[in-house]
Amino acid sequence: MRHLLLAALAAGTALALPAASGIEWSASHEDARAQAREEKRVLFLAVNMDGERANDELAEKTYREKRITELAAHSVNLVASAFEHGTGECKRFGTITCGDHVACDIWARENVLEKDAEGFVVAPQHVWLSPEGEVLLSVPYAVTEGELEWCFVTALTTNDPTLELKMSSKARAPRRLVKGGVADVEGGDQYGPSALTRDEVLALIEEVRRGVDRQQRVRAVMRIMTADEPEAVDFVRSEMRSGLGGGRGGGRGGARGRDPRPGYLRAMARLAPASYWVIAAEYVDDSLIEVRSEAVVALEMLASPDSLRDVSSALRKEKELSVKKNLLRALGTAGAADKKTIQTLVKTAEKDRDELLRRNALIALGSVVKADKVDDLLRETLLDEERDPRERAAAVCAMALTRRAEWLELLRPALEAAEARDAEATPEGEPEEFVPPDDLLLALRSAVALLEGGDLSVIKDAVTAAGRDEIPRERWFGVERAGQR
User: How far is 334 from 460, CA to CA, in rounded Å?
Assistant: First the structure.
């Protein structure tokens, strides 16, 4: 999860595992593009770098997973990397040479990817293009096997609807999915600074330990938490337990009595790899509601299946409504493929006495894998005009969060009907001042915009309203800039 500089072409000496069977990469980007065009096949582009855990795992494991290689057999595949891995056959990607993927990297930077003012592009990054070279969809930064599967199936069936490809239980839409384009890094990445390589994070930890002022230390901790390295996790955990971070159980530490743990947890939710769930989980039973709340949202954003037990346990114990409703959301992301989790969320959405918990359980269902009982519940909730409009809005938000365009068949007519009712309720010639739409109309407009190709930020206000959220989900919706609502 780091930006690459074009000038780094000759660098990299890190060697990956010996090449095994995996995605069949095309040696020539010119030939690959011609083949995709002639055979009317999707062109898949993987952008990769050395020395960073997410990139290394993709190169050494994910690209070799059976399901991914099966799907990639339907596409023409290119890998772009600016790093050299020795002479002859590339030791990282196999079959092609390092000269091949370096040449592809140069082409991709100039013709497909977005660069910032310094020439940086996002890596890892994955792009699926039509046979004519138009971007169908892309995902910046780390991606799981299930997310990669979802993207392959979606791109392949969009290009050729006759392909009979079904998604496995692992498949889910990436939250950072970009439809019809690639991530724009001009003016700064909305998801925060790029991750550090292992060498960089170890050097920064040593620098902090030698002594820096408090402001520099806080900035360094937030940079260190972008790295998926055990030393980085241990260092951040130690900082949060120390006097700077306050003690567990509500102790306040740090200069001027200010507890920086909420700020660190919010930064973690936005920046950190999933492995940092072990730190966030330490604070779900903190005596301060602010700390508990930030920890729970961090677990929701980190979405680690390994955190499911801790989230479930916290949900059973939590009494504060504002925290409990967020625990339902964290349950949905952590237990996205867990049958018991899905049953719990469905039961809560259908039967819980508290309307806010029902709404947040519905929103959480937008994060789980496809299941008939979930689809039935979301559909029934939207169509039930006797239900509270805010619950119906929550169901609409869940549909949008699945990123499944098939929901448009239901959402478009529902939007037309809602807009017609809204027009009837507004007397002609009445006030010129802006009147915001109700929650259901807002959700319907936002969901249709998202599923028709918008980015995830378009659903932010609708989700915030339906869930009564006070803590921003910046990993999903981006960072609010000055002047934004």
Answer: 20
Structure tokens at 268: 């973690």
Q: What is the pLDDT of residue 115?
A: 83
User: What gap in Å lies between CA 349 and CA 16, rounded to an integer?
Assistant: 46
CA–CA dist 96, 79 (Å, integer): 10
User: How many Cα atoms within 13 Å fall on the side-chain side of residue 290?
Assistant: 10
Q: Phi and psi dihedrals of 416, rounded to 5?
A: -60, -45
How far apart, in whole angstroms, are the C-alpha atoms of residue 453 and residue 479?
20
The pair of structure tokens assigned to 425 is 């309720």
- Rounded Cα gap, residues 36 and 40, in angstroms: 5
Rg (Cα) of the chain, in Å, rounded? Answer: 23
Residue type, 296: V
Q: Which of 417, 416, 345, 356 is nearest to 378 (CA)?
A: 345
Segment 295-348, tens digit of pLDDT: 999 999 999 999 999 999 999 999 999 999 999 999 999 999 899 999 999 999
Q: Give domain limits for the chain.
A: 2-179, 190-297, 376-425+433-485
In words, the CATH class of domain 2-179 is: alpha beta
Please state, in angstroms and rounded to a whole number, the distance separating the CA atoms of residues 50 and 94: 15
Give the DSSP H or E segment for 47.
strand 43-47
Structure token digits, residue 208: 């902090």
Cβ atoms of residues 276 and 301 within 8 Å: no
Phi, psi angles (nearest 5°) of residue 395: -65, -40
CA 265 to chain centre: 17
Whether residue 9 is predicted with pLDDT greater than 50 in this model: the reply is no
Q: Which two tokens stand for residue 93?
A: 């990607």
137-151, 175-189, 203-217, 314-328, range with greatest mean pLDDT: 314-328
Side-chain-facing half-sphere of 400: CA atoms under 13 Å: 35
Give the whole-angstrom CA distance, residue 336 versus residue 169: 9
Residues 136, 112: contact at Cβ < 8 Å?
A: no
Q: How many Å apart are CA 83 and CA 283, to the nearest integer?
A: 40
Secondary structure element (H or E) that encloses residue 351, with its range: helix 339-351
**Interhelix angle 230-241/198-210, nearest 10 degrees:** 30
CA distance readout (Å), 146 to 22, 56, 67, 270, 343: 16, 17, 9, 21, 21
